[in-house]
Amino acid sequence: MKFFAHLKLTNIQWKCLPLIFVLSIFTFVCKTPDVKKTPVVEVKKPEPVEKVVEAQDPNLAFLESIEDGRELPDSDKWKVEQYDAFTEDTFPSYAPANANIDFSKVDYPLLNAAIFYVTSKERKSLGLRPFKYSEKCEQAAFGHAQDMVTYDFFSHTSTVNGKETLRDRLDLVGISDTYSAENIISSFGIQYQGGRAVFTPIQNGGPFFSYTKAGTPIPNHTYLSLAKSVVETWFNSPSHRKNILNPEFTYMGAGTYFYKDKKFYDIDKVKAVQVFTAKP
After folding, report:
1. Which of 27, 140, 178, 228 could form an SS bridge with 169, CB 3.0 to 4.6 Å?
2. Distance in angstroms (rounded) separating the CA atoms of residues 15 and 203
3. Does residue 231 surpass a pLDDT of 80?
4. CA 144, 244, 36: angle at the middle one, nearest 5?
5. Segment (H or E) for 171
């Protein structure tokens, strides 16, 4: 499934080149066999996509990626213990969450927490129980977001050996035999307003995008505003909304990873992942 956001050109500046941003999001749901029931025949795993990690031993990529997925980055602004101190109602007042993101040193645990709380608030507003935080789900989500950036793919099927499916990735962090699902997205790091024409860094003579030539740079998202933008896009997609509002899912963890889109003037973007499970 792909969503396209078009930046519409005007005739005001003929030098303003057309800009078409492609925003892709996918959703995936899997269910492992109920251990209390007669086991079903295991469906053969799909073959990995043809694109592999170039000039690198696949086993090395496998081991490095597992380690990255299990070890979340350190943060001086957000610790796992703070999930017990904040709720979806109090998190928006947390000052660090309202700071603009410096993409040279992203605080991933804080951004992951922002996505978690914004998502939980959407559930609560519709009469559902908020999600319970799962560190294991966050590990699986962060590892997949990191892999998608590191190995340049965008899919629920990973190109990393041993992590091809969501089930594989959950097994690696210690979650098995549970109903689960995954949402993924690639999103802008700047606070771009859809439908507006922009001037590129080349046109501006500086490393920024703006709505007027050499004008005020479009600012980076804050941690909270980026989370709201990502969750809003998921929520407006029926299949992703279904995962977010599925009452069978009790636990959730989010993961994000920053990259520069070399296909469009190195614009700052993130790949984000949500992992949902019925048990921790």
Report:
1. 140
2. 8
3. yes
4. 80
5. helix 166-173
